[in-house]
Design goal:
This protein is of the alpha+beta class and 134 residues long. It has three helices and five strands; from the N terminus they run βααββββα.
């Protein structure tokens, strides 16, 4: 595509020091608040209780919890070939952290804490050029 003139290659440059850092994290706690996920978990708990020979007594104590703004991404499972939703939140961070991401490429609430620079100001500078290509 380069040979056809569809795009040009510029030299690699360092990320400017003034760029903010963000953590895009997958928050599975959000999914647990939706009724479909709640029903699936109750069904799984019931199946396990029956397998152990216990009586199934679901806990109906539902706590109200608020979440910051989040985005949903529909993704397909490689192992089961089923679609599911990832709930992603953007968190402002003060300093860059080591690149530690899940297999989906996101940070998490606990284990993975990688951050990425906000390059939107750089994209805004080249956006008119991109429009000319299309």
């Amino acid at each position: 595509m380069y040979d056809c003139g569809f795009f040009q290659l510029d030299p690699v440059t360092l990320v400017p020091e003034v760029c903010k850092e963000y953590k895009f994290k997958r928050n599975q706690g959000i999914a647990k608040r939706f009724i479909g996920d709640h029903k699936r978990r109750l069904k799984r708990h019931q199946k396990r209780a029956i397998a152990r020979g216990e009586e199934f007594k679901p806990n109906v104590n539902i706590k109200v919890k608020e979440f910051e703004q989040f985005h949903c991404i529909l993704i397909s499972s490689n192992s089961k070939q089923q679609e599911f939703i990832l709930h992603i939140q953007r968190e402002n961070v003060e300093i860059q952290s080591k690149p530690s991401f899940s297999s989906y490429g996101f940070a998490t609430n606990e284990r993975f804490s990688g951050t990425v620079p906000d390059l939107s100001s750089l994209i805004d500078d080249i956006y008119p050029f991109i429009l000319l290509l299309f």
